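Incident review: delayed structure delivery

Summary: a single-chain prediction request sat in the queue longer than the usual turnaround. Root cause was a stuck worker, restarted by the on-call engineer. No data loss occurred. The affected request and its eventual output are reproduced below so the record is complete for anyone auditing the incident later.

Affected input:
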Amino acid sequence: MKREQNVIYIMLNKPSGYVTTVSDPEGRKTVLDLIEGVQERIYPVGRLDYDTTGLLILTNDGEFAYQSTHPGQETTKTYLAEVAGSPSEKTQLALRRGVMLDKRRTSPAKVEIVEMKEKSTVLKIVIHEGRNRQVKRMFEAVGHNVLRLKRTAVGKLTLGDLKPGQWRFLAPREVKLVRGERNG
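Output delivered after worker restart:
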């Protein structure tokens, strides 16, 4: 007899210094090292770079994972990016129109300045594609290196006050927030 699988959804505030994989051949810490007490075999939905922080969903629901990351689904992802320097209005407009990466233009991004610092600027950027290192590469394409990057939302699901390294189970209504963006 086939055992009914307990489907779970977890939100993690990924700290820097963890790889977003189930295991790492180089022996680095993985995001699963942060999830204690969960017996189900879960895996990350999408990826965050080693030094990128913020909202990461983990689940054992393959359909949910596929729907959340498939390019045609257009699930939005919101980030706070601290970049070197001060992006001009022209630079911000280029990001809003899409920039060339790998000989293809990115979809338009929503961009707004959150905070101006002495030598850097914090911007909120919303994208709905999931290309490899996309946000960092978009800013590099317009001449600004990303100093820090944090994902704050996936769809309408926000990180809230979850501290770095902390995780919690998602409530059914929160799973719907991620699904609802695609399914109406």
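Verification: The chain is about 20% helix and 30% strand.
Action items: add queue-age alerting; document worker restart procedure.
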